[in-house]
Amino acid sequence: MSEPRVPPSIGGTRWEPILPPELFQPAIEALEAITQSVNSWYLKTQRPPQLCDLSIMFAYLHIGDKGTNWLARAVECVELAIHRLPEFGKISLHGGLAGFGWAFSHIRDIYKTCVGPATRDISLWEDSLTQIDARIISTLEQESCNISANLLHGLVGLGVYFMERLPRPDAYLALELILGRFEAVSKTTGSGTTNPTPPLGQRLQTGNTTCIASGTGGIVYLLDAFINAKFEVERSERLLEATVNGILKSQNDSSLRWCSGGLGVGAVLHQTATRLNRTDWSRCSGLLLDHCAKHSFEATKIIDTSLCHGAFGVAHIFNRVYQQSLQLQHRENATLWYTRGLQLRRPQLQLGGFPSWNTLYGGAWTPDSSLRWGAVGATLALLSAMYPIEPQWDRLMLLSHLPMSRATSNVWIKESGVSAVCGGRGGETRA
């Protein structure tokens, strides 16, 4: 891969490559195997959700490898998905209409910055996003529509999408509807405080209602985003305080899973505490992250590399926390798990050797190219470890926030100074 274009990090500091030099060549070989496999696909045969994941991967490959026209592939995925909008039966962020809208909006920003809007008519893209906004808002306005409060299929996921659509008036309308639903499903305690929880019938089946993917951990992230955007601050702060207190009282899971484990909760609490300068929450999140880090590889029973519940997901979370805190133990933990992820690669299998372990029917290795479970996620995680490319795609996993400066100006690549590029080895940069 050639020298990368470099977007800035959320806080205005550079994203630091952390992959050790001895892992750089194995990572390059893995990326080349994945991209050779995926680039040969006939995209018209892919399902719409898969087109969304592929578009994100191709866009970040474009930033990382300016010698290859990956952005054209990303645009092709988006435009194929636009023609198949009616096939999106769900409105959810993961696997549904909001997920396509999020990917579409993000790819458009990258395209406009890297290539320039004058080179292609992208006005039709905004028309499609407006249609997506209207369809989701129409659903939110239906009082009889029972939508859970979670990230994957509910209100948190829809809020993540509409945060991306700020400062458009329809985005504020949608966020108001979402906040109102949070308040509607809140339960009042004896002290008069509120604790927003998903409807009982839609809580995570494992009983971990504090997790990121299906529990209140996702609500913490979105309320924090509301406050940072100066949106209904008083209401959001009241709900956030009660929600975090509820998590701190009941959180007893230290498993290394983004989706349902303590590691994902610790990462969200860490960034919320940092942004709001809450030392009490920061102390609790630090203890939780440290507890998670103590597990041995064998004790975790992690056998695949997925972002959702595999080695690269653990690595990326620790990497993100390191970039936010600059605490070296998080960098060390991330490096250990990137190493483990590359060790778990099965080169003889499809998609670069990064299959997903499917627990259905007793368990089996399954070819998977998705962002959460498969090769797209492996590609994005490795790029983030190898190059000074901030992984803004991980807003889909609630691991970072949209900079509020971008609410009015989408210039996150130009602001970074494209001349700062990777010198060909992990952790080394040159101007």
In summary, what is this structure?
The protein is mainly α. The chain is built from 15 helices and six strands.
Task: Write up what this structure looks like.
The chain has 431 residues and is mainly α. The protein is 51% helix and 4% strand. The chain has 15 helices and 6 strands. The protein has helices spanning 21-39, 48-64, 70-82, 97-114, 123-140, 155-165, 169-184, 216-228, 233-250, 262-276, 279-293, 297-300, 311-325, 328-343, 375-386, and strands spanning 186-188, 194-196, 356-358, 364-366, 421-422, 429-430. The strands form 3 sheets. A two-stranded antiparallel ribbon has the order 1-2. Helix 2 packs parallel to helix 15. The longest helix is centred in the first third of the chain and has 19 residues, at 21-39. The two termini are 18 Å apart.
Key structural traits:
single chain; 431 residues; mainly alpha; two-stranded antiparallel sheet; 4% strand; disordered C terminus
Record the SSE blueprint:
Layout: H1 21-39, H2 48-64, H3 70-82, H4 97-114, H5 123-140, H6 155-165, H7 169-184, E1 186-188, E2 194-196, H8 216-228, H9 233-250, H10 262-276, H11 279-293, H12 297-300, H13 311-325, H14 328-343, E3 356-358, E4 364-366, H15 375-386, E5 421-422, E6 429-430
Antiparallel strand pairs: 1-2, 3-4, 5-6
Helix pairs in contact: 1-15, 2-3, 2-4, 2-15, 3-4, 4-5, 4-6, 5-7, 6-7, 6-8, 8-9, 8-10, 10-11, 10-13, 13-14, 13-15
